[in-house]
């Protein structure tokens, strides 16, 4: 099962190179089932840092550093209170709450898209960062919050995908620290060859995603982003329900 998760990082990285997100949303639910909430989220978060660092050089020129600051810093800072909150709330309820809020928020954003002016103000960016940071540390998924902002702001795909990479590095690094300090989470003990499989899968996935660039229409790419966010939210709800049922 763990090897399957590491191999899945190939597909997840290819999608993240193309769309800017998807790594954690695709892999976190499987990792949580295989390793438990604490180690599953820690493993996926660590791999997400590696994936984003691999992608940064090829996406550097499209990064919007202003949005990195206004979204990334609140995301990193929100990890601490969210991790503390996570120690006082049942894990199953966290997954349910995160998933339901994302489904509602994304649905509203899609309904609002195209009506009125794009929402791009600093307050919206900071709120997006808080949502991404809290979602990352509590459930391992920060992408849906950014997707909602991407829809409402009509963020161009190339800039969206590139700008998310340094944001994920900041958020995931803070998540690893926050979960370790406040929630006692640890990385699973993997052999060296498992880490090698993960690194190779990420590298090959990045290459595949790079090859697909320019061959897929931007509207299709953003459609994939929205679908990934919704799938991540639904999987979060399913994970919460499964944990509630297994506890009975």
TrEMBL record:
Membrane topology field: Multi-pass membrane protein
One Gene Ontology cellular component annotation held by this UniProt entry: plasma membrane
Protein's cellular compartments: Cell membrane; Membrane
Keyword terms, alphabetized: Cell membrane, Membrane, Transmembrane, Transmembrane helix
Transmembrane segments: 30-56, 68-86, 92-112, 124-152, 190-208, 220-241
Keyword Calcium listed: no
Main location: membrane
InterPro entries hit by this protein: TM_pro_TauE-like (IPR002781)
Superkingdom of origin organism: Bacteria
Record-stated family: Belongs to the 4-toluene sulfonate uptake permease (TSUP) (TC 2.A.102) family.
Protein known as: Probable membrane transporter protein
Organism field: Enteractinococcus coprophilus
């Amino acid at each position: 099962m763990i090897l399957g998760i590491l191999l899945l990082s190939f597909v997840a990285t290819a999608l993240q190179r193309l769309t800017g997100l998807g790594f954690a949303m695709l892999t976190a639910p499987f990792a949580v089932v295989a390793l438990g909430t604490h180690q599953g989220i820690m493993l996926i978060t660590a791999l997400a840092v590696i994936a984003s660092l691999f992608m940064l050089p090829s996406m550097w020129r499209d990064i919007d550093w202003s949005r990195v600051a206004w979204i990334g810093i609140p995301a990193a800072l929100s990890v601490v209170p969210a991790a503390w909150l996570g120690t006082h709330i049942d894990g199953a309820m966290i997954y349910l709450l995160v998933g339901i809020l994302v489904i509602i928020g994304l649905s509203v954003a899609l309904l609002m898209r195209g009506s009125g002016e794009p929402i791009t103000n600093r307050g919206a960016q900071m709120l997006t960062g808080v949502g991404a940071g809290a979602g990352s540390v509590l459930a391992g998924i920060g992408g849906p919050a950014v997707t909602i902002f991407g829809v409402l702001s009509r963020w161009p795909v190339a800039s969206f995908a590139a700008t998310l990479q340094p944001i994920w590095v900041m958020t995931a690094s803070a998540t690893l620290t926050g979960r370790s300090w406040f929630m006692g989470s640890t990385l699973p003990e993997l052999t060296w060859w498992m880490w090698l499989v993960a690194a190779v899968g990420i590298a090959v996935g990045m290459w595949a995603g790079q090859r697909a660039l320019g061959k897929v229409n931007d509207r299709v790419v953003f459609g994939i982003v929205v679908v990934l966010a919704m799938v991540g939210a639904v999987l979060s709800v399913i994970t919460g329900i499964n944990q509630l049922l297994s506890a009975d």
